[in-house]
Amino acid sequence: MYSVNYHRAASVADAAKLLKSGDAKLLSGGMTLIPAMKTRLAAPSDLVDVSRLKELQGVKVSGKTVTIGAATTHYDVSADANLKKACPALAHMASLIGDPAVRYKGTIGGSIANNDPAADYPAALLALGATIVTNKREIAADKFFKGLFETALKEGEIVTAVSFTAPAKAAYQKFRNPASRYAIVGVFVAKGKDGVRAAVTGAGEDGVFRSKDIEAALAKSFDASALDGLKVPAKGLMSDIHASADYRANLIAVMAKRAVAAANA
Amino acid sequence: MSDVSLTVNGKRVSGSAEDRTLLVHFLRENLGLTGTHVGCDTSQCGACVVHVDGRAVKSCTMLAVQASGSTIVTIEGLADGAELHPVQAAFKEHHGLQCGFCTPGMIMTATDMIARHPEGLDEATVRTELEGNICRCTGYHNIVKAILAASETMAKGAKGKAKQAA
Fold first, then answer.
1. Residue of B nearest to A98 (CA)
2. How many CB pairs under 8 A join A and B?
């Protein structure tokens, strides 16, 4: 790791100020950034640690509205009793990220700001039609995830929370790479007041995306059988040593079916 | 350079470290606590697992300065004098180690796992929860056996204590 200056922010406003120094980066759980720094893929001059800020912590459920602080860890999301009632699919999804030690450190804000094309949270937030709250504005998930490791966040902008309306039904299913355990394909389906949304991670050349084919089929009937015979196009899907685009296309339909079955269970 | 102040295994310690110093290196090199191992150095193997503020995390993926102010327990802090912690005793009893390199991390993960499952553990849960710990000797069978046994011993111990208290 190259030399770096560490700062522990006292508040979000303080973090915004500290971010202006040199080539500073925000540090939350550090589960992606620190490994990237160790391999010198990332070399920020300064790190601004926001992981201990109380104002960024915790899950709040008020009626159907769920708000999760950006520095809430995957473990805390997975174990939150109120969330398990309001949106068990998201708590379950968080319990599938990485491993227990990673879930104790990694945060929802860090995950979505990084927008890894195989990360789980982007699929969940896109399918839930979530709103990403920053220190400057609110951004709809549909506009937030821009591409591989790319988001709508501007220089110096800090994710402070995400919020969404709990769906009537939802579930997440992923097919993991047996070695890395990252999703080769992950599908989050949600049936809410605005209809059915299905988001796919791990597969798209431009990162997370909504599958219109799956959404159209499920809009007619929110049942796994509605996806029988559905052919998801392989266009725009990744091909790599782990899986071809065709294989991923097939997996999307399979994971979507399993997710719908789980949502209806 | 930053000052790093920690409570490690019940003792307050402090030292100066470069901001890029990983917690595992601070523990091993500054504090001489070499029971915590560096296996893969890529957050996968779990040989470096320690408890930071009661949570089992990978100390190779955390800066020492990030941990400053925290309470840390390493493998050296588990035993009560000459008396092994129940998880350590179970690993010894059930031969839950071969070369022993992954053992400190396995045990720190296991104690956290048992604490998180007061209702008890089954084999499938133990195997799933060991996802972040790799044993290159592939000695998982006895590791799982040891964790299940320790979980039972500790549940009985807790009940015993509750009875005494009553």
1. B132
2. 66
